[in-house]
Structures are given as C-alpha cells and as structure tokens.
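Hi R.,

Here's the input for the nicotinamide-adenine-dinucleotide complex you asked about:
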Amino acid sequence: MDNQAITPQAFSPDASFATDAARNLAEKISSGQAVVGVAGLGYVGLPLAVEFAGRGFRTIGFDPDAERVRRVAAGDRSMDGVSGDVLHRVVREGLLEACADFARAGEADIVFICVPTPVTTAKNPETKYIEAAANALAEHVREGQLIVLKSTTWPGTTQELVQPLLERSGQADAPGFAAGRDYFLAFSPERIDPGNRTFTTSNTPVVVGGVTPTCTRLATLAMQQVCEQVHPVSSPRVAEMEKLLENIFRSVNIALLNELAQLCDRMGDISIWEVVEAAATKPFGFMPFLPGPGLGGHCIPVDPYYLSWMARRYDFETAFITLSARINETMPHYVTEAVMRAIAGLPVALSEARVLVLGVAFKRDVADTRQSPALSIMELLTRRGVQHLAYSDPHVPEIETPDGLSLASVSLSPEALRSFDVAVIVTDHSAFPYAEIAEHVRCIVDTRNALKDIDGDREHVMLLGGGDF
Ligand SMILES: NC(=O)c1ccc[n+]([C@@H]2O[C@H](COP(=O)([O-])OP(=O)(O)OC[C@H]3O[C@@H](n4cnc5c(N)ncnc54)[C@H](O)[C@@H]3O)[C@@H](O)[C@H]2O)c1
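And here is the predicted structure with nicotinamide-adenine-dinucleotide in place:
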C-alpha cells in the first residue's frame, strides 16, 4: 500500500458530460469530494477502501462479517493486505468507516462491489454474493451514483445479473431511471497481487468497461484517483472476459510446467528448473512460469471455471481450461505420492512417520490459505495413513485441516527439525531457515526448488521436476 503521486491530468474535471448527474459526479470525483463505498472488505475491498481513504476520500466499507467490520472500524493494524499504519490513520482521521449493513449505501457516490465469486461443488459459478450485494444496493441506488463491480466473474454478469437487480427496486423504479444517464454502472476487474511489494494499486494498470460510454468515463475517472494508468474498453463484457483471460493464461502456463516437471521426473536427468532458467534468457517470446504443488487462492483455481461454464451456453468446450485444471488438480496427489515414497525409503513405519508440511499459505509470504494445495496434501497424507502430521508457517499461526484437526504452527528449531522424518516444502516463504531445514531434516520433498541456493549434500532432497520425484 503506497500513496504515490498520481499524474495531475487524471484529476482534471471533464465538463463535457451530457447530463447534470454525470457532470456533478465527475466534479465530485475530481475534487476529492466523492464519498466512496466498498461492498466486501476482503483481500480486494479493504486495500481499495484504504487506498481511497488514504488519498482523502471519505470512504465507507460494507461487509456482513461483523468481526471484520469491528476490526476495520477499530483500525486493527494486523489486517491482512494493507499497511496497518495507513489503516489505523485513516480510521483515526474519520476517513474510513465500516458497517455491517447497507443502510448508509445511499451516502456513497461511488460503490465498488468486491464480494467473493467462488464455484459450487459442481464447479459452476456461485454468484449469490454478487446478487446479495446488488439486491442490498438496489434499496439505496440513487441519481448520480456510480456502481463498479470488481469481483471476477463471467462475461455478461454486470449487464445480465447486476443491472436488472439494481433497476428492480429503490429509486431505480422511478420511470426513466437509466444506467448511463441517471446512475452509472461499470465493471473494472481487480488485479491486486497480495504480498507483491513492487506492483501495488497505484502502479498496476486497471481495465474499465462501462455499460455506456459515460459509465466508462466516470468509472475511469474514479479509478484514476488511485491508479496511474486506466485502460478503458468498449463494454463490461470485454473487461469481464479480459480478467478471465489473465487468470486462464496463468493456469494454462502453470499446467504446462507441471506437466513438463512430471516428464523431467520420469526422464531423471533434466531439471525443469534449469530448463526454465535457460529458456528465460530469451528476451522475447518467452515468459517464465514455474511448476509447483498445485494451485491455490481465490482466483487461478476458480476463475477458469467461470468461462468454461459460460462457454457451454454456446455449445463450446474450452479444452485448454479443462486440460490445465486436470493437470493442476493432480499436483497435490503427485506430491503426496512423493512423500509416501520418501517415507517408504526410510527405516520408519508409516504409522510412526513424522511429516512436516512447510508452508500452508497458497503462496509465498502471504497468510491466505484458501484452496491451498498444502491442505489437500495434508488431507491426502492422512488418508494414506500418516498419523503424525505437523506444519510450520510464519504467516499462519493455526489452521483447521480439512479432516477437522486443529493444528498450531511448529517453530523450526534444529531440535524440532530433527524430530521429523520427512519435510515437504509446499510454500517457499522467504522467512524459512532453509539451511537449517536442509541440515536437520532426514528427507525433504521440495516442490518449489526452495533449496536451490543451499550448498552441500542433496542426497536427502527430492526435487519436483528435478528427476527425483
Ligand atoms: N484475493 C485476490 O488476490 C484477488 C485478486 C483479484 C481479484 N479477486 C476477486 O475479487 C473478489 C473478492 O475477492 P477477495 O479475495 O477480496 O474475497 P474475500 O473473501 O477476501 O472478501 C470478500 C468479502 O466480501 C464480504 N461479503 C460477502 N458477501 C457480501 C455482501 N453481500 N455484501 C458485502 N460484502 C460481502 C465477505 O464477508 C468478505 O469480507 C473475487 O471475485 C475474487 O475472485 C481477488
């Protein structure tokens, strides 16, 4: 979270709007007088709310999670994904408030919808959170208000799902109350990369697509207040599809590397890590992706299903999505098999083997465990008969495993490390003491090439894609 200067022309008001409602809103945004509402104070919504509040916009967060609202309203410095100091300051200065219901949504000139978009057990889009937020906003939507959906979703959601809900009740019932003239509606996908200190809200370009050109211009102006570069597109559908392309691109390329890692394991004498490092020296036409223990988080494992679901409407099968999901979803099983082989190679009974999972967050240096492959691996190991399972994660002090076990993170002293038979590195947090791990654990399954810089004997290390799995 940083408050870098935004280019001055982004603040210049635009007098050429056709309606008073649009012109007034543009002036409010440009002068910093607009009140910002954020529905959903999670990994996406809270940083956005803090970013606007940090730049002086009065901001109100709405979230049904009473505990989350209490923590935000108290300026809790330990909230994930934001600078504790900035959050504390904006709350203390009265710039950021939080509410558990939408009663005050009418106060906001701009409302961003940042609610979850998971999939159902059948891997279909679960849009009930978007619907709930749109229904709640519909009670308060008013002339001159801009509503921007940021949740990742299928192309068409903004116009086919959100717009009719918004226009069904409240002031939108007034005859002639129209998106683009009286109120404004757009889609602007989120690109936040939690834990990334180089690319933050202000220096990561965003895409905006409005229901009408005026909606696009107003949403662009709104996003320009916190973001240096805004790229308008011709419709919400294009913006919705663009976001899915970004995530499917990652999913497909990671799957390719996961498949090649398995091939390298079978070949035995080529390390996929060395291959990628060499390929990455090509300055054009190649972008490095790495293999790993499986996908995690709220985006990459989930979002591609939004498009494959929608494609079925058109009798179209998105084969790349299906194939990459299949490969990526087998990775926790592949890693589990490697751990089982590691145990089998030691003079210890399976029921006595002590296994340490290193990293349960889904990626490096964050605390987010949603859909983490570590949890799948732990569940699979338990099913296979491992009875002494522990984990360590500097960012996740305790977890509940899918089997209902409550575990606390183990601290990694040399004595503690020596007490384990096998350690499996699932998440390569930078805080892990890799030299000590390599020195003290009897056998290590490394799914991230986290031990690459550790010198010495590697006989006890099984590297994914290194020919050792
Ligand atoms: N986490 C990321 O890195 C990331 C990145 C880009 C896009 N996204 C997308 O952004 C969206 C939000 O993701 P997130 O990670 O912030 O989710 P999250 O689970 O961290 O936060 C969502 C918040 O919305 C709240 N909520 C649920 N129903 C609500 C309602 N009806 N009204 C208001 N609030 C409600 C929840 O209580 C929760 O606090 C998803 O569509 C996700 O795919 C996430």
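One thing worth noting: Residues 275-463 form a domain with the Rossmann fold fold (CATH 3.40.50.720).

Cheers,
M.
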